[in-house]
Automatic annotation (TrEMBL):
Keyword tags: DNA-directed RNA polymerase, Nucleotidyltransferase, Transcription, Transferase
PANTHER family in the record: DNA-DIRECTED RNA POLYMERASE SUBUNIT OMEGA
Catalyzed reactions per annotation: RNA(n) + a ribonucleoside 5'-triphosphate = RNA(n+1) + diphosphate
Family classification: Belongs to the RNA polymerase subunit omega family.
EC number: 2.7.7.6
Descriptive protein name: DNA-directed RNA polymerase subunit omega
Description of how the protein assembles with itself and partners: The RNAP catalytic core consists of 2 alpha, 1 beta, 1 beta' and 1 omega subunit. When a sigma factor is associated with the core the holoenzyme is formed, which can initiate transcription.
InterPro entries: DNA-dir_RNA_pol_omega, Pol_omega/Rpo6/RPB6, RPB6/omega-like_sf
Gene Ontology cellular-component terms listed: DNA-directed RNA polymerase complex
Native source species: Zavarzinia compransoris
Enzyme class: transferase
Keyword Nucleotidyltransferase tagged: yes
């Protein structure tokens, strides 16, 4: 890559990281068969892409939008319908209440056993 080409491109796209992304995207488009807007002059695709950016023969905004479109991934998720939420939450509340009742019963039986042991055990001997 010619230093002059990169320096010319930095005037058009000040952020070097963005320049690399845009030039790479354009070079891939050229490899896929996109028409050239400058003469190839026996240059490879990345150099041609940089020359196109430097000469402003490609729309940088359009190139940027195309790059963003290819990098975005849209994932469809099945989310519960708003009407189902109260029913689902009621089931969750009931489950949590059941857990709390079980924990309370376990704690009470443990306390009763400790109290019984502390008071001397069996009441059947009296």
């Amino acid at each position: 890559m010619a230093r002059v080409t990169v320096e010319d491109c930095v005037l058009k796209v000040p952020n070097r990281f963005e320049l690399v992304l845009l030039a790479g995207h354009r070079a891939r488009a050229i490899s896929a068969g996109a028409p050239l807007s400058v003469a190839r002059d026996n240059d490879k695709n990345p150099v041609v892409a940089l020359r196109e950016i430097a000469d402003e023969t490609v729309a940088i905004r359009g190139l940027r939008d195309s790059l963003i479109g290819t990098l975005q991934h849209h994932v469809e998720r099945d989310e519960p319908v708003e009407d189902d939420m109260p029913r689902l939450m009621a089931g969750q509340d009931a489950a949590m209440e059941g857990i709390a009742v079980d924990a309370y019963a376990d704690t009470m039986s443990d306390l009763a056993a400790e109290l019984d042991a502390a008071l001397g055990g069996d009441d059947d001997d009296e």
